[in-house]
Amino acid sequence: MDHEATQELTMALAAVGGTTQVADEVVEKIAVAAARAVPGVVELGGDVARFVNAVLDRVGLDQVGDARRGCSAHVTGDAAVVNLVLVIQAGRPVPEITGQVRARVTEAVEAHGLRVDEVNIRVDDVATGGPTHVTHGYELT
After folding, report:
1. CA 36, CA 101: separation in Å to the nearest integer?
2. What phi and psi values does residue 33 have, to the nearest 5 degrees?
3. How far apart (Å, rounded) are the C-alpha atoms in residues 137 and 113?
4. pLDDT of residue 119
5. Residue 121 C-alpha from the chain's centroid
6. pTM tops 0.85
7. C-alpha to C-alpha distance for 66 and 91, rounded to whole angstroms
8. How far apart are the C-alpha atoms of 126 and 88, rounded to whole Å?
9. CA distance 90 to 15
């Protein structure tokens, strides 16, 4: 394709325009991956989600639902609100972990071209021993 034809094609595409929508589920997957990368975050999801996940693990469906578990997001235009439910490691400062989670989630979502208006976090549990022993408890907003 010659240079003039390429320019015409580019201008035609730019003139077409249209809208772009990012699904809530996309932001949820991005946010979960970012939150899991923070040291001190043991799991995501509330009691029921973790119970269902444990059952799925036992029957060999360990990847079902994991990509978005513990997260909900709402995208309006170019802005997102993210809600996370975390289980954190016992003995770790809650404000430190949640601050790191907010920063990483915001950075990850904004890297995909959206603005993050809020990252709301509820610490639902603390892991005091192995991965199966947690103590129900803390809530932050």
Report:
1. 8
2. -60, -40
3. 35
4. 98
5. 11
6. no
7. 26
8. 5
9. 56
